[in-house]
Amino acid sequence: MEDSKINPLKVVILVPAVSLALLAVFLIYSVYSPSPIFQGKKSVNIDRGLGSRKIADLLKKEGVIQSKWVFVTYVSLKGVASDLKPGEYEFSSGDSIVSMTKSLIKGGKNEVVITIPEGWTNKEIIGHLEQNKLIKSNVFHNLAYLGGDLGPPAGGFEFLKDRPDNASLEGYLFPDTYRFFKDASEKEILLKFLQNFEKKLSVEFSQEIKDQGKSIFEIVTMASLIENEVVSDEDRALVSGILWKRLEKKLPLQVDATLGYIKKHNLFYAAKFIPQDGHRFSKEDTKIDSPYNTYKYLGLPLGPISNPGLSAIKAGIFPEKSPYFYYLSTPDGKTIFSKTLEEHNKAKAKYLQ
Predict the structure, then answer these.
(1) What's the helix, strand, coil split of the chain in %, to 5?
(2) Who contacts 142 (Cβ-Cβ below 8 Å, separation ≥6)?
(3) CB 324 within 8 A of CB 339
(4) What is the pLDDT of residue 25?
(5) CA–CA distance from 343 to each of 208, 324, 337, 350 (Å)?
(6) CA of 172: how far to CAs of 127, 201, 281, in Å?
(7) Could you report the per-residue pLDDT of 182-238, keeping only the tens digit for each?
(8) Exposure string (b/e) for 316-327, b if CB count within 10 Å is 16 or more?
């Protein structure tokens, strides 16, 4: 009987094959097994722009996976490395790399839903966005008030081109419900507001404003007054007619909302004036030396005093003619219209005192 001899060639072939088989088993076991690293649940936020290796680094750092390279190898072999999406994810200790990958392909919670009410000022909007951790207030303030870097002149928006050079974007941050990416830049968020304004203004409204010989800036300024003065669409159209008529007759607008804007934003120039709380304004308030004071100065205020909604903008474009020159809002929101100053003073005595 002859001694059997081991074939060296077979050994050379067999060792790598066994190694590959063991590696495959290890990989399969690793990607399908739940993570033993932590117990319970863990939230992980994945920013936009991260590739599969950076995502693996983050998951490893957060203690969600044991091996970065097992994760990278798995998503590469599956051909889904470029399909992993940013967002906020919640992983549990029972998750495997396979289930995590499915979640990452589907996408996490990466948006914040924000509702901006009609009539909010830029200052109020900035505070709300900052409270929801979407912006750095100083950066957004620079864009919304000082112009910042919006790109081409007026950000390339046609509706901003008749805006005075020193005017802020007050009035143009259209109130609506928005979905913002958590990692969106301040500029991206601001442009979304402006894009929405452009869409809502429409070509038809822009042409109507032009045909009337008015500027969009004037309409937005007027709409911002109307937004803060009356509520119903019918009353807004009548108030718009009164205000435009008072402008034509060279009468002061005497809009209380402008005093509220001055006091809320400390936009006054009289050194001795001290803003006070409340909705009623004193005779002294009407003397505040501010270009926003429509009691002291003729014409529209220096610029918009809020960000008006579509209803107020429509009222500004399409005023309703009437015999009235005066109006006031009662504490319960009803609007009282008067033809003469005598009638108006009687209405004030009846409803406001």
Answers:
(1) 50, 10, 40
(2) 148
(3) yes
(4) 63
(5) 34, 10, 9, 11
(6) 17, 10, 27
(7) 888 899 999 999 999 999 999 999 999 999 999 999 999 999 999 999 989 999 999
(8) bbebeeeebbbb
Q: Among 45, 91, 87, 53, which residue's Cα sits nearest to residue 70?
A: 53
Residue 11 is which amino acid?
V
What token pair was written down for 109? 């919670």
Q: Provide the 10 A C-beta neighbour count for residue 349.
A: 9
Compute CA distances 110 → 41, 129, 130, 184, whole Å. Answer: 18, 15, 17, 10
Cα gap 277→260, rounded to integer Å? 9
Using DSSP bridges, classify how beta strands 326-329 and 335-338 pair: parallel, antiparallel or unpaired.
Answer: antiparallel
Answer whether 140's CB lies under 8 Å from 76's CB. Answer: no
Residue 18 within a domain? yes
Q: How many domains does the chain have?
A: 1
CATH code at position 97: 3.30.1490.480
